[in-house]
């Protein structure tokens, strides 16, 4: 039987806040204990954090790192797990509780078809009331890619419902809980560490799709995520910068030319919106990143790497991309009634040209 690594990243005081329930639910897994190993990557590690992790979860392997690069932390976990002979790699968040069959069902999904390279759990919002435990709501049934590099969840805040089989995820698997095969990592490499954090899961999923692998949902692999949107918006720089890196890395020159007018229009809109929203300086920092020659050198190297394993063309993968920006937490009438109809119409034309 193939050994599985469960890779979880700690960041500063996350372990003190979230580890106990996460650990207890991992210990309660129905999957054979000798067939999986938990790795905790101690990002921004300190003596106190390392000691806390070793005392609180002695059977986990702790891998210390000095900086807070989430993408690099996952790469460090994968590297260590590869050295230990693991052939399946589960990336999971610490701020979560896992059902007892969570791991077994993830593995069942990724084993069900040789074309499947990645499988995502059904991610539910962590209940805050007794009523929500009885009637849970969805956090993610897979994530959607907008053609301008945005990513957002499918099914967010909808009532949970039964799903049969292993339906294909047209976009990418949420980094909150997914499993990836060793052969996929061998082919596409690990995380692009330039992303640092945010859209890192999109980057892995997009690469896997281009390499010819399917991504599916494992609906019986259930985890409950203590999702906090306020924590996400603190990292607007990475979210905005990384969507541009994704487009420039993955699209062919012809596709980039076709989407260029829409990209400029969107950027102008975001720039104007950033002034009253208080993150104008953050948006400028994104532009400054792309004024650096070394940034373009990194993008070029990634493009060459992707070219070496790419099997799927833009016109095939683009069919599943969205023309609408669906930020479920943000209700913006300009986006809803003006921008989205325009972008959706534009993208429908581009897809026909591709």
Give the rounded overall mean pLDDT.
93
CATH 2nd-level architecture of the largest domain = Alpha-Beta Complex
Number of domains: 2
Rg (C-alpha, Å): 20 Å
Got a strand count? 11
Biggest sheet layout: 9 strands, mixed
In CATH, the topology of the largest domain is named Spore Coat Polysaccharide Biosynthesis Protein SpsA, Chain A
**Weakly predicted, low-confidence segments:** none
CATH class of the largest domain: Alpha Beta
Mass-distribution shape: globular
H/E topology pattern: EHEHEHEEHEHEEEEHHEHHHHHHH
Strand fraction: 15-25%
Helix content: 40-55%
Put simply, the count of helices is 14
Derived from helix and strand composition plus strand pairing, the structural class reads: alpha/beta
Task: Please sum up the structure shown.
With 354 residues, the chain is α/β, with parallel strands linked by helices.
């Amino acid at each position: 039987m193939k050994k599985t690594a469960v890779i979880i990243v700690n960041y500063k005081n996350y372990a003190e806040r979230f580890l106990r329930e996460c650990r207890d639910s991992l210990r309660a897994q129905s999957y054979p204990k000798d067939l999986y190993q938990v790795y905790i990557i101690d990002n921004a590690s300190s003596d106190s954090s390392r000691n806390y992790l070793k005392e609180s979860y002695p059977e986990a392997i702790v891998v210390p790192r000095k900086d807070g690069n989430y993408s690099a932390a996952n790469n460090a976990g994968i590297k260590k797990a590869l050295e230990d002979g693991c052939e399946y790699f589960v990336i999971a968040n610490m701020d979560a509780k896992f059902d007892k069959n969570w791991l077994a069902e993830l593995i069942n999904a990724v084993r069900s078809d040789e074309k499947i390279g990645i499988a995502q759990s059904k991610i539910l919002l962590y209940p805050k009331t007794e009523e929500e435990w009885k009637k849970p709501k969805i956090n993610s049934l897979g994530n959607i890619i907008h053609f301008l590099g945005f990513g957002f969840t499918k099914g967010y805040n909808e009532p949970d419902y039964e799903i049969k089989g292993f339906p294909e995820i047209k976009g990418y698997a949420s980094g909150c809980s997914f499993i990836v095969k060793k052969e996929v990592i061998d082919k596409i490499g690990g995380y692009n560490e330039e992303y640092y954090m945010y859209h890192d899961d999109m980057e892995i999923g997009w690469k896997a799709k281009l390499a010819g692998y399917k991504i599916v949902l494992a609906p019986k692999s259930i985890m409950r995520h203590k999702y906090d949107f306020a924590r996400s918006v603190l990292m607007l720089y990475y979210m905005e910068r990384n969507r541009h890196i994704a487009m420039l890395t993955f699209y062919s020159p012809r596709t980039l030319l076709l989407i260029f007018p829409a990209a400029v229009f969107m950027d102008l809109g975001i720039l104007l919106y950033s002034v009253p929203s208080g993150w104008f300086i953050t948006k400028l920092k994104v532009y400054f990143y792309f004024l650096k020659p070394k940034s373009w050198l990194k993008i070029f190297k990634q493009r060459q790497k992707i070219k070496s394993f790419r099997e799927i063309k833009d016109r095939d993968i683009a069919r599943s991309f969205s023309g609408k920006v669906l930020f479920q937490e943000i209700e913006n009438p300009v986006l809803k009634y003006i921008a989205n109809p325009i972008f959706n119409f534009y993208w429908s034309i581009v897809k026909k040209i591709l």
